[in-house]
């Protein structure tokens, strides 16, 4: 799928092509708009289309219109690499947004770095930005930060022995490793450690093992996609009377729908301000940004806004801000300006980057949330 305009994304996906007049600033994107990670990529694609359309209607960047070249990699790392190469060599974009998953992101990085074209990832794994790579940035919190936020909450609740059940996909495996690397900092011991394949349809065997672990007080499920919803339903079926934590990889209303509000009741996870836009305090710095994006996205698409579209929103915001400040659409100038981003308020947090930090968020950007009555609430 390729689109060179900012309208009729659904039609363009169906047709597989589109034609448009040349624009002044050409930005590329490859996301997983279809396939198993479409719950990530579809809102990301729609968000980018909407924002480019809005930007051009308002006069563009420094008086220049923006052209979006958008591909759907279907969650396939090989396709993502192919499309990234095409974006650089054939489409001659000045920057790339995308990589809905860690797998597709890692395949794009080498292309972007070799071509010296700025790349802003929409995936979570910490290895995307550690060690720092000159042209690679990202908008979601890292999996390590999610582990830290969760263990911080567990520590406050007095938990010292916990279990983990992790997906074996790229995200789940990475977060499992990161959680193990920091858990000791919080005086917490992992007393049960199980895994599941993302295609598994039942995790009762693993959860039964966890339920029987000596002294266990809570359970954490690093994972994304449908797996965590199945874990949550099985958890309820087994009547496991322990707090259940999920990752930011399922921070959306879709998770509640898939798991079922009854099964998801009481589940906690680290999420973004976007999920609780309506109940944020009026003096919260992110409230104007998240409420504006929520209103625009829902009016445009007729679907609820979510965390993952917010990652694309912030990537585009960072890119627009960088090009504006740089006064140039040259990739090297854009890269330098992104790295100098300071105090930029997005839906995911407030970004301040540096040569040593290509994410620019800290733990304060995460909100600990709990599902109550089928809705997201803030844990005080």
Report what the structure shows.
There is one protein chain. The chain has 380 residues and is an alpha/beta fold. It has helices spanning 9-15, 38-57, 77-89, 102-115, 143-156, 170-182, 204-211, 227-237, 253-259, 261-264, 287-301, 307-326, 331-339, and strands at residues 2-3, 25-31, 66-72, 95-98, 119-121, 136-138, 161-167, 189-196, 218-221, 244-246, 268-271, 344-345, 350-351, 367-372, 375-378. The protein has 13 helices and 15 strands. The strands form four sheets. The protein has a six-stranded mixed beta sheet with strand order 1-3-2-4-5-6, sandwiched between helices. It has a four-stranded parallel beta sheet with strand order 8-7-9-10, with helices on both faces. A three-stranded antiparallel beta sheet has the order 11-14-15. α6 links the parallel β7 (161-167) and β8. α2 (38-57) packs parallel to α12 (307-326). It is globular and about 60 Å long. The termini are far apart. This is ABC transporter substrate-binding protein. Residues 1-23 form the signal peptide. Belongs to the leucine-binding protein family.
Distinctive features:
380 residues; alpha/beta; Rossmann fold; 4-stranded parallel β-sheet; 13 helices; 41% helix; globular; Leu-bd; signal; amino-acid transport; Leu_Ile_Val-bd
Give the gist of this structure:
This protein folds into two domains: 2-142 and 288-364, 3-Layer(aba) Sandwich (Rossmann fold), CATH 3.40.50.2300; 144-276 and 366-378, 3-Layer(aba) Sandwich (Rossmann fold). 41% of the residues lie in helices and 17% in strands. It has helices spanning 9-15, 38-57, 77-89, 102-115, 143-156, 170-182, 204-211, 227-237, 253-259, 261-264, 287-301, 307-326, 331-339; strands spanning 2-3, 25-31, 66-72, 95-98, 119-121, 136-138, 161-167, 189-196, 218-221, 244-246, 268-271, 344-345, 350-351, 367-372, 375-378.
């Amino acid at each position: 799928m390729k689109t060179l305009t900012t309208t009729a994304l659904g039609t363009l996906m169906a047709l597989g092509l589109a034609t448009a007049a040349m624009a002044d600033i050409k930005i590329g994107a490859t996301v997983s708009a279809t396939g198993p990670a479409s719950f990530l990529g579809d809102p990301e694609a729609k968000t980018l289309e909407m924002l480019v359309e809005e930007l051009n209607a308002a006069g563009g960047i420094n008086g220049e219109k923006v052209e979006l070249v958008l591909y759907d990699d279907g969650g396939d790392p090989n396709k993502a690499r192919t499309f990234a190469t095409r974006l650089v060599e054939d489409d001659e974009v000045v920057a790339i947004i995308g990589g809905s998953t860690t797998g597709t992101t890692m395949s794009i990085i080498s292309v972007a770095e070799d071509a010296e074209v700025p790349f802003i990832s929409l995936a979570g794994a910490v290895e995307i930005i550690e060690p720092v790579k000159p042209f690679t940035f990202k908008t979601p919190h890292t999996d390590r930060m999610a582990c830290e936020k969760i263990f911080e909450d567990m520590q406050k609740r007095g938990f010292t022995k916990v279990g983990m059940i992790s997906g074996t996909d790229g995200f789940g495996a990475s977060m499992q490793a990161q959680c193990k690397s920091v858990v000791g900092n919080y005086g917490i011991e992992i007393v049960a450690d199980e895994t599941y394949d993302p295609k598994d349809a039942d995790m009762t065997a693993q959860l039964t093992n966890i339920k029987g672990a000596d002294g266990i007080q809570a359970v954490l499920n690093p994972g994304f996609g449908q797996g965590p919803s199945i874990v949550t339903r099985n958890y309820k079926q087994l009547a496991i009377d322990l707090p259940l934590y999920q990752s930011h990889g399922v921070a959306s209303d879709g998770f509640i729908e898939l798991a079922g509000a009854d099964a998801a009741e009481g589940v906690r996870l680290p999420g973004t301000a976007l999920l609780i836009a309506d109940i944020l305090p009026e003096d919260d710095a992110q409230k104007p940004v998240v409420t504006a994006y929520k209103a625009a996205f829902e009016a445009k698409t007729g679907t609820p806004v979510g965390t993952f579209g917010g990652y694309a929103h912030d990537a585009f915001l960072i890119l627009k801000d960088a090009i504006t400040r740089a006064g140039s659409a040259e990739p090297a100038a854009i890269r330098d300006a992104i790295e100098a981003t300071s105090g930029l308020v997005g839906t995911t947090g407030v970004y301040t980057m540096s040569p040593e930090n290509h994410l620019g968020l800290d733990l304060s950007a995460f909100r600990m949330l709990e599902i109550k009555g089928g809705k997201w609430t803030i844990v005080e």
